[in-house]
Amino acid sequence: MDFATVLQLLDSTLRLSTPLLLACLAGLFSERAGIFDIGLEGKMLASAFFSAAVAAATGSALLGLAAGMFASMALAALHGLASITFRGNQLISGVAINFLASGLTALIGQNWFKLGGRTPALSGDARFLPIDFYFSETLSSIPFIGPIYSELLSGHTLMVYVALAAVPATWWILFRTRFGLQLRAVGENPEAVDTAGLSVTALRYQATLICGLLCGLAGAYLATGMAAGFIRDMTAGKGFIALAALIFAKWRPGYALLACLLFGLLEAVAIRFQNIDVVGVGTVPVQFMQALPYILTVVILAGFIGKAIPPRAGGEPYAKERA
Amino acid sequence: MTALPKWADVALIPAINLVLAFFVSGLIVMWIGENPLDAMTVMIKGSIGSAYGWGYTLYYATNFIFTGLAVAIAFHARLFNIGGEGQAAIGGIGAALVCLHFGWPHWTLAFPAAIVGAAAFGAAWAAIPAYLQASRGSHIVITTIMFNFIASALLVYLLVNVMKAPGQMAPESRGFPAEAHLPTAHEMLAWIGVSFPRSPPVNVSLLIAFAASALVWVLIWRTRLGYAIRAMGWSEPAAIYAGIRPFRIIMITMMISGGLAGLMAINTVMGEAERLLLDPVQGAGFVGIAVALMGRSHPVGVVLAAILFGMLYQGGVELEFEMPAVSREMVLVIQALVILFTGALENMVRAPLERIALMFR
Asked: How high is the ipTM of this complex?
């Protein structure tokens, strides 16, 4: 493999990791506050559709982004209503949200655009366009560092940089602010938070809505940044890979970045090379590369490589009074 | 606290939830610009208004009974098996191997063998997450989700590289031999002189689905093992105190659950397609969740809910035909709303009803 191929591979790794990273951080906020969320996929999908649809209708990618985030946060609020207010099963609520998003986006898409569930192809300002760094043209001639700067780091859409910046931001919010401490506490020991006079309900709703916001960014990136429009079920399991990455990262922002980059790299390799010949092993089929994130997550969950311990109160609805 | 009388718990609450789900679906249909009552009429007529409609409704219902029972039995042990989709796909591989690799003289021999094959493969696929939950505490919901994706990758790999019929492009196995053909309702009813349309794929698997429901009922409420499963579901510490071993119960329950999900394949793979296709499950594994919730994890409820969902799926096809504005995905929306109202938002209906019930005590 030559240097140019490696660069291309890493470049697409960065692009493919972005939606995973945003969704993974979304799940991080929610699960750290004790709300399991297997509806990341559905929220991303809803946002992908509404961002592309509104962008197609208005010609503005930013308006699309706003619509996508709104749709995703609406589903997040529904998840909050079911799992916080009505103390329902968070996993079942997540399953319902995934189906709701899959069904509604196809239904509304077909009704709105009559293109078999697609949105029209987006172009110009209706998409987020690559941002070229300063001097990327001139600097590209410098050996080694030049191509890294101009091809790998420069030339991505806004959301890629937002996602990367969201990692330290998430770490700072969760581990260096009062709000973050409260949020983590509500995921570990809601009784203590309640005793301290804070509202468990309010904190958990806030976490759920932040989760919706980040999933909204992820979905909008998929449909208006990475692709040029929405196609049916375009998230194609990315929400679940993000969930896998979250477990792989043991609910920590820094590891989340690494996990998402790893899973992005696997996807990039699978797309670029299809079946890979490994000396001494034989041919590794492309399907194995596609399944690898899930297999790795199961291995991590099984505790063979360090133990993944979720937030203690995760998945448990909080009832103030004991029945 | 169960202030509610039993009839309210088993009939009233599911009915209210269902009405709510249909009401919201109706609003969505109205918003699209069609008349929801007309849409409902089309769906009912299309699904149970003719023998042809019934044939398809019951074909879908067969799948949903199997996957619904799979989810339901796991619910009894308070395990959420979300992996029916993967277990059914692997069950499909089992059924296909049995049908392709032995020269069966007659379907009456091929069928029991395929039942065993499908159930064993499904059970084996469920056994891994079960083991990880039981011995290493890995959350079964997450592992079964992961196993769905792994199963689908495995199926694609096998169909593209190993099982693909020679000399053809499409990733599907070769067709099963004619001796492994399962009698459809058309053929079976012809034996007793009743005519039934030829095209609906409903077949002898439906009877297996009913038998499985009866067996699950016996297992849950009439055997020692069923008692142990329910005890685990009610209270794990109490079950341990009573000498029940959680490891054993988790393994057995999940393997029965996976086996039931795998059985779905005898209907789709052996009964309908008569070859192994890329997506032999088509979401039925997930419908099982809605069916189990709706049917209150009781086999009778599961059968009724499965028929209801069979009506929805068949009605949805007809609806798309009659009202092009309302595409087939409407069914997915209704399904989501049923899961939402019967599963996640259950307390929204239950809490006020319990308050009312307490007033009359």
From this structure: 0.88
